[in-house]
Fold this sequence. Notes:
Elements: H1 2-20, H2 49-58, H3 64-71, H4 75-91
Helix pairs in contact: 1-2, 1-4
Amino acid sequence: MKTEYNKIYAKLYQIYKKYQKAYKHNPDSHQMCCMWSTVNPPDTIEDTKQIRDIEKAFDICLNEMEALELYDMNLDEAAKRILEMKEGKSSN
């Protein structure tokens, strides 16, 4: 399980860096919210390119509440949550 977590974290970190670096005013704090503008955040998170990239990368589908939960997490928490989602999906 640790290996799967590490793979998820590494892939999520790549996505995070792709978007975080676009917002120079955001710190590299490993907070998921830094993937979006913190000066002018989006009205909805669910339909953003960042969430679509996460869904595609991990073959998951996030509803509005799950997207907001990830937005409020740090990378470690988000990677663990994605792992839980993937494990839940494979057990169904």
